Amino acid sequence: MDRKKLNGLVFMAKVIDRYGIRYNVPRAFLKSKGNLLVILEEEYGDPVKITLDRVSISKVCGHVSESHLPPVPQSLSEVNYNMEHGARPNKVDLHCPPDRNISSILFASFGTPSGDCDNYATGNCHLSDSKAIVERACLGKKKCSVSLWDRDFGIDPCPGIPKSLLIDAQCT
Question: Is the domain of 68 the same as that of 150?
């Protein structure tokens, strides 16, 4: 989806998929009240058939690996900090919506998990304590970060093989 913000106005491209034509207005673009939705006529569109749905997020998921490129530093001070402290940015950041906390870890694998956030499995390399380690770091919190190189993982379950970390969590 292509989003552009210009002078406070939000322009979005439509998404055509198996559900038809959908638009998404991210929560970050909305105020708590006083929002105005302007609908411009589209070719062959029928504004009477427009419906608004509120999506409630109950799961959060993240997947990183040693092969993911780190984000580009935004400033020279960030470059210097990373060099001085050996910062490694590959981490899973989980954030629950407002008024919700991480209530359970549905899946966690440090090693070579396969799949993505919708369909996953442990791989040939998997640290059996992965879920317990992530539970200690995240349960009961609104947000948490777990580094791919977190010292809490302790041992390397398969030396010499690039590692990944996949976490799927429930927010209630």
Answer: yes
Task: Say which CATH number the domain at 95 has.
Answer: 2.60.120.740
Cα separation values, 64 from 8, 117, 152, Å: 33, 11, 17
Would you state the structure tokens that stand for residue 72, as one six-digit string? Answer: 């580009």
Domain check: are 159 and 92 in the same one? Answer: yes
Which stretches does DSSP call E strand in 37-84?
59-65
Give just the sign of the alpha carbon dihedral 26, 28, 32, 60. Answer: positive
Q: 98 is in which domain, residue-wise?
A: 59-171
- The closest alpha carbon to 150, from 103, 93, 75, belongs to 93
Q: Do 103 and 97 touch, CB atoms closer than 8 A?
A: no
pLDDT digits (tens, 9 = 90+) for 37-74: 777 666 666 767 777 777 667 899 999 888 766 555 55
What's the pLDDT tens digit per position in 87-105?
555 789 999 988 899 999 9
What length is written for the chain?
172
Global pTM value: 0.64
Are 72 and 126 members of one domain? yes
In a shared domain, residues 82 and 163: yes
